[in-house]
Amino acid sequence: MTALPTTSQTDIETWMADFLADRLGLPAAEVDRHALMTDYGMDSVTAISMLEELTAVVGLEIDPDVIWDFPTISALAGYAHERSSQTSEPGVMRPTS
């Protein structure tokens, strides 16, 4: 698993769409980035798997609860991008209130 070339929201969204498409066996272009990931059958096991891989490619630890706070690819990618641009040091990405 290699890191993303950048942590832009678009790069993260593309990676997440590819991840879900691979798990679903459909073209990434058919994954709606604004649909709830649970609509695609995302369960807690798949969510944890995705977050573990996303942690590796983005370089920041992501709190597992975040996926339920940001339930679409677009929302979670936006959050991951925002957090990764706030720090150059590894850290834990958690929702902010």
Please give a structural write-up.
This protein has a single domain (9-86), classed as ACP-like (Non-ribosomal Peptide Synthetase Peptidyl Carrier Protein, Chain A, Orthogonal Bundle), CATH 1.10.1200. 51% of the residues lie in helices and 4% in strands. The protein contains 4 helices and 2 strands, in the order ααβααβ. The protein has a two-stranded parallel ribbon with strand order 1-2. Helix 1 (9-24) packs across helix 4.
Per CATH, the superfamily is ACP-like
Kindly identify the CATH topology. Answer: Non-ribosomal Peptide Synthetase Peptidyl Carrier Protein, Chain A
Helix/strand structural class: mainly alpha
Q: Give the domain tally.
A: 1
Number of strands: 2
Largest sheet, in brief, is: 2 strands, parallel
Compute the number of helices: 4
